[in-house]
């Protein structure tokens, strides 16, 4: 009798835990299939591209070719120029991205402390945001020179205002009921800010950093277009001046790879900082 009761008690637990145990295996299988499909799509596109060039359907002079890109990539890697250009752009983009995102988020969150001051400066923020930031590029070059600082400053100009607006809006949208509850329990304004407002804004702030990755790269590359002797922007600009489309593609694919890697760095930070917000959760509804 005792054996029967023991078996009955353990049966529901095994039923419940069995699907949970299979979920990591299922996710690994889905990930492998997804990556295989993505790689297959890239391979098919490259094969079709090369086939169209070989058949003279498109001009290699105007669009380049995968084999020509591989040849240009090999030359750039063996000469070491690609590593120098990539590192230069990477440092400029990351520095501008970090400074702009952090400073913009801090300023945007701090506006929560004074709604009156926030309403005072809001028209100025909107006015600055309405101006295409690329228009500031000549001024930034004049103010900071042609070195790395001007590219970082331009990246900061593109990313800071976006981070500021996103953080300020997220702080305004923080759960009012949760704030009222915290105040009713005796929380001070500083405690309310750090315990309620800041955690509630983290998903929006991190989502904005995904956008700012691209803006940081844009700022660095545009600065290199205008005036630079190194960087992927300089590589693309110089190659396009000589109608070297294969080298242009090398620079563009390198920029894509940098953006891809930075995106997944931010994705990892989101899983660490905001573990409660996972879009790929086991509780996701499957249709």
From TrEMBL:
One GO term describing the cellular component: plasma membrane
Pfam families: BPD_transp_1 (PF00528)
UniProt main location, coarse: membrane
GO annotation (BP), single: transmembrane transport
Cited PROSITE patterns: ABC_TM1
Domain of life of the source: Bacteria
Source organism: Pelomicrobium methylotrophicum
Parts of the chain that traverse the membrane: 32-51, 89-112, 124-145, 152-171, 202-226, 247-266
This protein's UniProt keywords: Cell membrane, Membrane, Transmembrane, Transmembrane helix, Transport
Membrane topology: Multi-pass membrane protein
Residues covered by the ABC transmembrane type-1 domain: 86-270
Similarity annotation: Belongs to the binding-protein-dependent transport system permease family.
UniProt keyword rRNA-binding, yes or no: no
Subcellular location: Cell membrane
Protein's UniProt name: ABC transporter permease
């Amino acid at each position: 009798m005792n054996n029967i009761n023991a078996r009955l008690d353990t049966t529901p637990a095994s039923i419940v835990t069995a699907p949970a145990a299979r979920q990591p295996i299922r996710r690994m299988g889905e990930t492998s299939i997804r990556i295989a499909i993505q790689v297959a799509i890239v391979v098919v596109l490259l094969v079709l591209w090369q086939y169209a060039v070989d058949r003279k359907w498109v001009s290699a002079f105007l669009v380049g070719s995968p084999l020509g890109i591989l040849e240009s990539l090999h030359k750039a890697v063996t000469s070491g120029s690609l590593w120098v250009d990539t590192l230069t752009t990477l440092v400029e983009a990351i520095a501008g991205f970090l400074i702009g995102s952090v400073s913009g988020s801090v300023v945007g969150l701090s506006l929560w402390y004074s709604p009156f001051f926030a309403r005072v400066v809001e028209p100025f923020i909107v006015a600055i945001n309405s101006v295409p930031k690329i228009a500031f590029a000549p001024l930034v070059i004049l103010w900071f020179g042609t070195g790395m600082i001007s590219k970082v400053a331009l990246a900061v100009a593109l990313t800071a205002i976006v981070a500021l607006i996103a953080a300020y809006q997220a702080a305004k949208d923080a759960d009012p009921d949760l704030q009222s509850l915290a105040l009713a329990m005796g929380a001070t304004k500083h405690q309310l800010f750090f315990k309620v407002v800041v955690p509630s804004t983290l998903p929006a702030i991190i989502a904005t950093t995904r956008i700012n990755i691209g803006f940081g790269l844009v700022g660095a590359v545009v600065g290199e277009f205008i005036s630079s002797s190194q960087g992927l922007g300089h590589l693309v600009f110089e190659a396009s001046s000589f109608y070297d489309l294969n080298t242009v593609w090398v620079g563009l694919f390198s920029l894509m790879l940098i953006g891809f890697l930075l995106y997944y760095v931010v994705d990892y930070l989101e899983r660490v900082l905001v573990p409660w917000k996972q879009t790929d959760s086991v509780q996701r509804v499957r249709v």
